[in-house]
Amino acid sequence: xxxxxxxxxxxxxxxxxxxxxxxxxxxxxxxxxxxxxxxxxxxxxxxxxxxxxxxxxxxxxxxxxxxxxxxxxxxxxxxxxxxxxxxxxxxxxxxxxxxxxxxxxxxxxxxxxxxxxxxxxxxxxxxxxxxxxxxxxxxxxxxxxxxxxxxxxxxxxxxxxxxxxxxxxxxxxxxxxxxxxxxxxxxxxxxxxxxxxxxxxxxxxxxxxxxxxxxxxxxxxxxxxxxxxxxxxxxxxxxxxxxxxxxxxxxx
Length: 252
What we know:
With 252 residues, the protein is α+β, with helices and mostly antiparallel strands.
């Protein structure tokens, strides 16, 4: 198929408009939903690339098939609106997928932090969570802890669900405010120096991560960070056991 100048110009405009749409969405998707390091932790980098390729590819293919200088202005307008509608629908569906895959809570669970995606949460329990934990943020990730079983019945129920692969971190009824979990985090976290002694090859990564810290780095502690995709990250904890950084290191 030989494309004339009119078709090539139409493809160029479609490409520019498609790029503009993705650039407008980038601050939301990469800057908020998947702020560092969660693009890697949740394993959606390839998904975003695939969706972008589909967005661009759909526009180019439809433009080649439908836009022609031989058509009337009315026909060209109809075809252009059809292309916009199809691309917009694909983009909206992609955003829906990314929204469900985004991390909404970073949960302290026994001896680690777990990044939990919206689609992983046991939705039937969300209304049972302590306010305001019963409402998920539309853009950011929330720090929460998990409680311990209150009695034997609750322990056995927790064990049964865990054996089914539904851990406490996925069940909102077990979430507690992060501040209430601080004593347990203090006990479970480990000095960063112990990790460096055990894994000297990680020193360069750690030093790069903490280079701009404004407090005594000798007091930094850490815990492993996991998700449904990876187990190879750590959370660095600063004053008050608040997360201050992340590093791509196996903390177990």
